[in-house]
Amino acid sequence: MTKLNEYFENKLSAQEQLEVQMWLAENGYNPDAEAQLEELFDKLHVDDEAAARAAFQQVASRLGITAEARNTTACRSRIAAWSQRIAAILIVPLLCAVCLLYATRQPEVEWFEKQVPYGEIASLTLPDGTHLHLNSGSRITYPSAFTGKERRIFVDGEIFADVAKDPHKPFIIRSGDVGIRVLGTKFNFKSYTNTDCIELLLVDGAVQFDIDTDTRKQQLRMEPGDLVLYDRVSNDINLSTFQPEHFKSFADNRAIHFFNLRMHDIALDLERLFGTRIVILDEALAQTRYFAYFTNNETLDQILSAINSDRKMKISRRDGVVYLSLK
User: Locate the FecR protein domain: which residues (predicted)?
Assistant: First the structure.
């Protein structure tokens, strides 16, 4: 209590004043802190409550403390009430800094990481109500709360997202050199660090697809039914369309789609989905592109057989590993 008296009487060093401010900031929700302020006020004499409030308003205005900020919670209002009276008597601007600290403090944000094992899928609801489905081998990093001017997460893998609408706080996904900016929409986004192709399919709403590399900087505005394939190696962009009303993501009975995808990336996708190592023995086969769509929970053998409908590929197994080559 002695140090608190000395603080309001402006008898402390700058370091000691800071310590008292931090104590008030950390203990303002504690009834003991309020009791000590009340006890201190009882030892003072305020003849004019209106003058007290006016003095505090003048100091608060000079420090940029708005009425809205001062009334954010009942606790903050009570601390501000004692501050009004003491400020009027002692004219100690430092006290108002405590109110400013209370008004502007953001809740501490923790960052979490969720990783999905091979062969599994998972779902997640973010703090804003956005629903995410995560495909096999995916990893997402997200905060416990979205406190800033945007909602930002980090993705390595494939997600299907139903983003909660908030026109004042855009939803941002970062994945290496690419990003997506949305306000509220449904889309499928695939960006694994060990694959060359990044894929974005927009089912509903509107998004902006950002590319920010040393050799290419571009922003693409997308509409429902747009499909973007971006090649990390060549920097090529392939734009096409699909029918969103017929699209099924991996969250729908483990649906799988390969839209103009190289066999190299297809094999990596299948490895994650089925937990089976796949080795491509021919570079020509690895660079061959395929279109395929599976919606009936097909097995690995059924998928490879369908891709090999022209019978130009040899499929063999040895010691649990699948080997692919051209005939």
Answer: 119-208
Amino acid occupying residue 102: Y
pTM tops 0.85: no
Q: Where are the beta strands (DSSP E) in 53-150?
A: 111-115, 122-125, 131-134, 139-143
- Cβ-based burial of 74 (10 A; exposed 0-12, middle 13-18, buried ≥19): exposed
> What's the CATH class of domain 253-327?
alpha beta
Q: Which residue has the tokens 């499929």?
A: 315
Work out the pLDDT band at 40, boundaries 50, 70, 90. Answer: low
Helix (H/G/I), strand (E/B), else coil: 94: helix
Reported confidence tier of residue 230, pLDDT bands at 50, 70, 90: very high
pLDDT, mean of residues 116-131: 95
Q: How far apart, in whole angstroms, are the C-alpha atoms of residue 217 and residue 225?
A: 23
- Residue 158 main-chain phi, psi, to 5 deg: -125, 130
Every domain of the chain and the residues it spans: 2-104, 107-251, 253-327
Give every CB contact of residue 183 below 8 A, 6+ residues apart in sequence. 163, 165, 166, 167, 170, 171, 205, 206
d(CA 262, CA 199): 12
Backbone φ and ψ for 138, nearest 5 degrees, come out as -90, 155
Angle at 238 between CA 233 and CA 242, to 5 degrees: 135
CATH annotation of 107-251: 2.60.120.1440
